[in-house]
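Table S2 (continued). Query chain:
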Amino acid sequence: MPEPGHKSDTLFYLLAGILGIVTGLVNVAVADLLFTALLVTAWCMLLGALRPQRPWRWVVIVGIFVPIVELLAYLILTQKPYRADIWESFLAFLPGIAGAYGGSFLRQVINNILPGK
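Corresponding output:
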């Protein structure tokens, strides 16, 4: 049961899942790990800034869908990506860590500069 006045993060978890799936689809279509890493970094930074508590969760949710979609593409599509592409898609976690913690840090800096209620 959430505390009174505590906002639920369900919508943000759903958004993170959708962004992860979209990033995985872009990775399959473009087959460029650097662009995929840029997308994962951007999404994790956005989510880390919106919900700065426990930023590692955004890395896990967004990042896990990249190899899952890559694996599904390998199993389903007729034009199969290389098996190495599936393993290298796990590297998307690394820039995601920097993005999520960077977004969380940015939010804390903004909160310190512009104090709210």
